């Protein structure tokens, strides 16, 4: 479903000069699976997800969804994904209903289909009280619900959640994770990025550990535990990262 | 493009804007309230001014003659004013002449009297004062008496001594001082005339002999009507452009920078709507608001204007043409400014940053708009093709009722306006396609870090930014040099200033910027041997191009006639004619060929090469080349030469052909000043090339010009289709590979 092949992204930064945000990252994710991208802040999680959502163009490698390349067929790609990120806010001066309806229309859903879908979505996500509430008046959790409804309105086969639980309280985060799990059970392919171990442990079928743009390890939780002989994910994560930092430091001092 | 999506985006944005109370207020309520309020307060203010008389102190008025009267009680005599009620506007206080408790009387000495009066004005809070000299009344009486006793015919009469004038002093701390002084002067002048008339009458001279006529200003209602039509014609286009701009600006900032700030832009970008659909949807929204604001302002001004017209008989109503042409012209104006605002606002990270960009936009637009206030600027072909100004002039001409003149200029104005709209929209689309712009993040300004990084990452050839900076630096030095410019009196001075200009204004900035921004001198300045053929081609092109340039020059002069101050050029020509040719070639051809080519075709062109498209690099370098040259007329021609020389450098991959072209081109230009009747007699071939001497300066014959153009075209085509790609052959690396090579 999602194929990412040697994806790289460089950009210029005043402080750090030429920055490698992604360095040859490769993975695949399939329908009915939650693929987790785990990494500390600045690891490149958002860059991967933005590239897959066609918001950024890769500087190297390819990414495709359902066989459509993100560079060659960005429109087809966007038609097949629902993107929820802490950066995808909702409009302040629109009600929950209007917001979801707007994106449904941009997806060119016929009016009856759209109304039916929205009724179901608002029922399922328990957000009927948000129908006529303006975005500006909603709490963070309410906004997140509207965002999810917005991403689901066209029933996409691929869903991308970028640190979607950031800033949510325990109850709302829990219900969000439940929704994500339900989506997997419906056969969606879910990409889920987080820096919270527990979420990854609980939710993800397979995990990619990312640090400074490099993929450090990939596989199911059990695979990872077996391969590195460490049962605690947090411990495993920490070891991988410190080892990566050491090798980076060594190669830097050796190189100059 | 899916128009359905554009429609949804447009509808959403409009609804969003309408739900924002601030925008709704700024765009719909404010214009409706503003002008009536302004009108009311203006009228009240003028009423207030009329009701508040100025206070005047009169010093030394005790023994003034009774007839004709200057005062009537505590005011000036109403008969002295053209409108008798104006007398009430001056409230007169007479300075006491006798010493009283704690008061000194005005001294007799003129200077002391003046000092005294000024002090009194300050202390008493008067607006102005009139000082009659101490002996004024006595000497006035003497003059009148002498005039009345006319000597018998044939005998010379005693010449009367002139009467010392009363002085008007201002209390300059008072706002109404100047205007009060004006009224006082009129009153005193009227009084003086009356005294003169009375004296003449007394001496038996008929008044008609002394003052045979008084000129009258004859004004028909039609004149008044036309005058106010002209006023509206000047006012409306300017207001329309400014409304269209501000009406576009605030929604644009909210729609782009605001959306970025609130985080909804990423949501929209990840939706299936294409970037172009988003841009068009937003652009149409902004245009709609721009048009709506302008129309509402227009209606509000018109309503207020009609109300004011009733009160102020001097002002006529706006011409009827305004109601047709303003809405028509509004559409392209709104499109242009909407696209510009959209691009600027897309660049901004936040609404705050977006609002900063209003000032530069205003700074560029205002001169273009305000230029049309000058009555001497008329709708000519030359002015018609200046963006915004041309459109405003066209509107002004239409509103003045000169429909025929306006319609002949419609095509160029429309072409330029549409071209500008197109470019602005393209720019806006580019902004939305650039992820650097959309995902720009705030960086702390740290100059040391920046400089270090800049030095570390400088490439073989300059960046486009370095090239642009070099150009800006050159233009700045040019500005400061032009402030100190003096017309040379002889060739030595002329040579000095030319060499200084070339070295200081062109060579030095380039050398400075190059020193800090490049590694590869050879690649930047294109120091390569291009082969014999391109050099020969350049030489032939220079010769063939000269006739074309000379006729283009006269075309430009016809479009934009030289102002009187540019006639200094004539003096320069005189100096040039007296100087040995080899010296001229050295200073005016060889030096510029080296300096200007190294700068414009070397450094600047190499920098702009990074913009991706060679045509862009050539055009931008030619534009800078043009603007670095003197006045408008020269700029146009130089831009054209710059295009050709830039093309030479681009296709040959070397600086040399350009230098050869430049050298020959300038040499021919200075040589042409030597062609006179004598030379023509010696060289009959010149008569084949040049038209007979006339008053339009030296001209090539038309067939020669055409032949030249053909040769240039053929050689250009040859250079263009030559299979080699010199820039690629130079293995000029992209900026990123440059950095990779040199990173630690």
Segments of chain B where pLDDT lies below 50 for 5+ residues?
A: 731-744
Mean pLDDT of chain B: 83
| Straight-line N-to-C gap of chain B | 46 Å
**What is the global morphology of chain B?**
globular
Proportion of helical residues of chain B: 55-70%
Largest sheet of chain A: 6 strands, mixed
* Low-pLDDT segments, ≥5 res of chain A: none
How would you describe the oligomerization state of the chains in this entry? heterodimer
Provide the residue-averaged pLDDT of chain A.
89
Instruction: Estimate what percentage of residues of chain B fall within beta strands.
Output: under 5%
Number of distinct helices of chain B: 32
Radius of gyration of chain A: 19 Å
Spatial strand sequence of the major β-sheet of chain A: 6-7-8-3-9-10
The share of residues in extended strands of chain A comes to 25-35%
Characterize the biggest β-sheet of chain B: 4 strands, mixed
Largest interface: A-B, 38 and 38 residues
| Overall SS class of chain B | mainly alpha
Figure out the total of helices of chain A.
Answer: 9
Order of helices and strands of chain A: EEEHEEHEHHHEHEHEEHH
Helix content of chain A: 40-55%
Description:
- Chain A is α/β, with parallel strands linked by helices and 256 residues long.
- Chain A contains nine helices and ten strands.
- In chain A, the strands form two sheets. A six-stranded mixed sheet of chain A has the order 6-7-8-3-9-10, with helices on both faces. In chain A, strands 2-1-4-5 form a four-stranded antiparallel sheet.
- Chain A starts with a strand and ends with a helix.
- The model of chain A has no long low-confidence stretch (mean pLDDT 89).
- Chain B contains 32 helices and six strands.
- A four-stranded mixed sheet of chain B has the order 4-1-5-6, with helices on both faces.
- In chain B, a hairpin with a 2-residue loop joins strand 2 and strand 3.
- The two termini of chain B are 46 Å apart.
- The A-B interface holds A 10-11, 13-15, 17-18, 50, 53-57, 75, 78-79, 81, 83, 85, 87-94, 102-103, 105-108, 147, 150, 154, 255-256 and B 2, 4-5, 8-9, 12, 15-16, 19-20, 262-264, 266-267, 269-274, 435-436, 438-439, 443-444, 446, 449-450, 453, 456-457, 736, 739-740, 743-744.
């Amino acid at each position: 479903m999602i194929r990412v092949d040697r994806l790289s992204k460089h950009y210029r930064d005043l402080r750090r000069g030429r920055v490698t945000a992604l360095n040859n990252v490769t993975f695949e994710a399939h329908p009915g699976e939650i693929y987790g991208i785990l990494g500390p802040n600045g690891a490149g999680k958002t860059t991967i997800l933005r590239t897959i959502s066609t918001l950024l163009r890769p500087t190297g490698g390819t990414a495709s969804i359902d066989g459509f390349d993100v560079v060659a067929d960005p429109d087809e790609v966007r038609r097949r994904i629902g993107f929820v990120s802490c950066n995808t806010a909702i409009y302040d001066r629109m009600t929950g209903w209007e917001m979801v309806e707007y994106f449904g229309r941009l997806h060119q859903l016929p009016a009856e289909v759209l109304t039916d879908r929205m009724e179901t979505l608002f029922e399922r996500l328990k957000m009927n009280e948000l129908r006529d509430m303006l975005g500006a008046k909603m709490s963070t959790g309410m906004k997140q619900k509207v965002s999810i409804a917005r991403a689901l309105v066209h029933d996409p086969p691929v869903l991308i959640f970028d640190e979607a639980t950031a800033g949510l309280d325990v109850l709302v985060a829990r219900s969000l994770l439940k929704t994500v799990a339900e989506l997997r059970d419906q056969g969606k392919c879910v990409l889920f990025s987080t820096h919270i171990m527990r979420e990854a442990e609980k939710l993800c079928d397979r995990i990619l550990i990312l640090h400074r743009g490099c993929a450090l390890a990939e596989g199911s939780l059990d695979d990872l535990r077996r391969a590195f002989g460490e049962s605690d994910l947090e411990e495993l994560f920490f070891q991988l990262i410190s080892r990566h930092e050491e090798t980076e430091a060594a190669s830097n001092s050796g190189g100059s | 493009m899916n128009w359905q999506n554009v429609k949804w985006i447009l509808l959403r944005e409009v609804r969003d804007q309408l739900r924002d109370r601030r925008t709704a207020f700024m765009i719909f309520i404010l214009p409706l309230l503003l002008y009536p309020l302004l009108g009311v307060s203006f009228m009240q203010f003028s009423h207030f001014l009329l009701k508040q008389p100025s206070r005047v102190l009169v010093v030394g008025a005790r023994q003034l003659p009774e007839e004709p009267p200057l005062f009537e009680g505590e005011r000036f005599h109403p008969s002295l004013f053209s409108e008798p009620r104006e007398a009430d506007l001056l409230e007169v206080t007479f300075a006491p002449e006798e010493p009283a408790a704690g008061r000194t009387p005005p001294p007799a000495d003129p200077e002391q009297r003046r000092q005294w009066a000024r002090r009194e004005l300050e202390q008493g809070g008067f607006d102005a004062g009139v000082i009659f000299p101490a002996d004024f009344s006595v000497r006035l009486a003497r003059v009148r008496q002498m005039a009345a006793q006319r000597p018998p015919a044939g005998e010379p009469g005693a010449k009367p001594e002139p009467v010392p004038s009363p002085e008007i002093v201002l209390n300059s701390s008072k706002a109404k001082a100047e205007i009060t002084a004006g009224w006082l002067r009129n009153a005193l002048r009227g009084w003086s005339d009356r005294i003169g008339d009375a004296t003449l009458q007394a001496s038996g001279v008929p008044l008609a002999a002394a003052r045979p006529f008084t000129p009258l200003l004859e004004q028909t209602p039609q004149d008044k009507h036309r005058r106010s039509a002209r006023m509206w014609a000047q006012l409306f286009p300017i207001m329309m452009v400014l409304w269209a701009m501000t009406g576009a600006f605030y929604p644009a900032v909210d729609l782009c920078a605001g959306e970025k700030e609130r985080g909804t832009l990423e949501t929209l970008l990840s939706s299936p709507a294409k970037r172009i659909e988003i841009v068009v949807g937003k652009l149409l929204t902004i245009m709609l608001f721009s048009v709506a604001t302008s129309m509402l302002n227009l209606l509000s001004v018109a309503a207020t204007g009609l109300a004011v017209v009733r009160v102020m008989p001097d002002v006529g109503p706006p011409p009827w043409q305004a109601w047709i042409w303003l809405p028509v012209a509004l559409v392209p104006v709104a499109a242009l400014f909407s696209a510009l605002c959209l691009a600027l606002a897309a660049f901004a990270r936040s609404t705050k940053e977006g609002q900063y960009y209003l000032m530069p936009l205003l700074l560029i637009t205002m001169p273009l708009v305000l230029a049309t206030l000058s009555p001497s600027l008329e709708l000519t072909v030359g002015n018609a093709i200046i963006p915004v100004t041309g459109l405003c002039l066209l509107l002004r001409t239409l509103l003045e009722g000169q429909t025929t003149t306006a319609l002949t200029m419609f095509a160029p104005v429309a072409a330029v306006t549409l071209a500008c709209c197109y470019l602005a929209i393209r720019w806006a689309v580019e902004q939305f396609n650039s992820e650097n712009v959309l995902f720009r993040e705030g960086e702390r300004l740290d100059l040391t870090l920046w400089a270090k990084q800049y030095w570390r990452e400088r490439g073989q050839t300059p960046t486009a930014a370095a090239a642009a900076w070099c150009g800006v630096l050159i233009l700045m030095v040019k500005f400061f040099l032009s402030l100190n410019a003096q017309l040379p009196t002889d060739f030595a001075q002329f040579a000095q200033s030319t060499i200084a200009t070339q070295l200081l204004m062109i060579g030095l900035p380039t050398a400075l910027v190059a020193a800090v921004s490049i590694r590869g001198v050879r690649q930047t300045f294109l120091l390569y041997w291009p082969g014999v053929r391109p050099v020969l081609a350049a030489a032939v092109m220079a010769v063939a191009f000269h006739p074309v340039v000379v006729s283009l020059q006269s075309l430009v002069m016809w479009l934009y006639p030289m102002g009187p101050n540019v006639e200094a050029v004539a003096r320069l020509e005189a100096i040039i004619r007296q100087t040995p040719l080899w010296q001229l070639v050295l200073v005016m051809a060889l030096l510029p060929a080296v300096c200007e080519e190294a700068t414009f075709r070397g450094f600047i062109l190499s920098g702009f090469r990074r913009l991706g498209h060679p045509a862009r690099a050539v055009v931008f370098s030619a534009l800078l080349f043009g603007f670095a040259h003197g006045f408008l007329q020269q700029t146009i021609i130089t831009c054209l030469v710059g295009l050709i020389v830039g093309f030479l450098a681009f296709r040959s991959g070397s600086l040399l052909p350009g230098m050869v072209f430049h050298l020959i081109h300038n040499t021919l230009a200075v040589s042409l000043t030597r062609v006179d009747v004598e030379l023509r007699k010696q060289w009959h071939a010149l008569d084949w090339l040049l038209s007979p001497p006339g008053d339009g300066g030296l001209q090539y014959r038309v067939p020669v010009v055409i032949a030249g153009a053909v040769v240039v075209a053929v050689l250009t085509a040859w250079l263009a289709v030559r299979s080699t790609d010199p820039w690629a052959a130079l293995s000029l690396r992209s900026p990123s590979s440059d950095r990779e090579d040199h990173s630690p």
